[in-house]
Design a protein that fits this description.
By secondary structure, the chain is mainly α. It has helices at about 5-30, 40-60, 65-70, 80-85, 85-120, 125, 145-155, 160-170, 175-230.
Length: about 230
C-alpha cells in the first residue's frame, strides 16, 4: 500500500507542476524550433510530461510505481549545474567518464574472478585447516569462487580487514602469498590506477569537447549578431 501523503504536499506538488508547465510553454514560445536542440529543455519537458502522467494515473490506479513520477521531478535540480561553471565542469567530466567506469568495473570483476579461482585451488586448503576461533567466515573466505571474490573485494578494493584472513594464511603457508599478494598488486596498484588514469583522461577530453562546443556557439552567436547589425 502507498504511504499516506499530507494534503498540503499534494497541493505544493501540483502547484510546482503547474509552474514547470508554464515555464515549458513559455520556452517553447520563445525558442520555437530551437527548443528541442537543448538537452535541458528536453529534460524539463520529460519531467513535466511524466508529472502530468502521474497525476492522471493517480486518480485511476494506486500503485507504488507512481512514486517514480514524483521522484523524477528531483532531476530538475540538475539545472543548478548550468548556473555554476565548476559544477558544470564536474558534471561534464563525470558524464564523459561513465563509459570508462562501466568497462573498468567489468574488467575489475574479471580480474577478481581470475584470482578467486586460483585462491579456491591454492589458498582454501590452508585457510580451511586453520582454527579461526570466533571468526565464522574466515574458514570459508576462499571456500568458493563467490566467497573468494567477496573476500578479495573486501580486502583489496574496499581495503577492509586485510589481516583478518590473509596474514594468518600466509604465515602458515608462505606459498599462498603468491596468490594473495599477486591479487593485491595487480588489482590495487595495477588495475585500479590504470582505470583512474583513463577516467581522468576521459574527463579531460569531455571538458575540452565541451569548451570547444561553447566556443563554436559563441562564435556563431557573434557572427549572427554581426550580420544583424549590418
Amino acid at each position: 500500500t502507498e504511504a499516506k501523503t499530507e494534503p498540503w504536499v499534494k497541493t505544493v506538488n501540483l502547484l510546482l507542476l503547474v509552474v514547470y508547465t508554464v515555464e515549458v510553454i513559455l520556452r517553447v514560445f520563445v525558442e520555437r524550433s530551437k527548443y528541442m536542440q537543448n538537452q535541458w529543455n528536453i529534460l524539463d519537458l520529460t519531467i513535466v510530461s511524466v508529472g502530468w502522467l502521474g497525476q492522471a494515473m493517480g486518480g485511476i490506479v494506486n500503485i507504488s510505481f507512481l512514486r517514480f513520477f514524483r521522484v523524477a521531478r528531483l532531476a530538475r535540480a540538475l539545472r543548478v549545474f548550468i548556473a555554476f561553471r565548476e559544477l558544470n565542469m564536474l558534471l561534464v567530466g563525470f558524464m564523459g567518464a561513465i563509459k570508462t567506469i562501466f568497462w573498468g568495473a567489468i574488467m575489475m570483476f574479471g580480474m577478481l574472478l581470475l584470482w578467486a579461482i586460483l585462491a579456491v585451488e591454492f589458498v582454501h586448503p590452508t585457510s580451511s585447516y586453520l582454527d579461526w576461533g570466533d571468526c565464522e567466515r574466515c574458514g570459508r573466505g576462499f571456500g568458493s569462487v563467490l566467497d573468494a571474490v567477496l573476500t578479495f573485494f573486501q580486502q583489496i578494493v574496499v581495503g577492509d580487514s586485510w589481516g583478518a584472513i590473509s596474514i594468518p594464511v600466509i604465515e602458515h603457508n608462505p606459498l599462498t602469498g603468491m596468490v594473495i599478494v599477486g591479487a593485491a598488486m595487480t588489482i590495487s596498484y595495477g588495475l585500479s590506477n590504470l582505470i583512474l588514469s583513463v577516467i581522468v583522461d576521459q574527463a579531460n577530453d569531455a571538458r575540452e569537447r565541451d569548451m570547444d562546443e561553447k566556443l563554436k556557439q559563441k562564435q556563431a552567436a557573434e557572427e549572427m549578431q554581426r550580420k544583424t547589425l549590418l
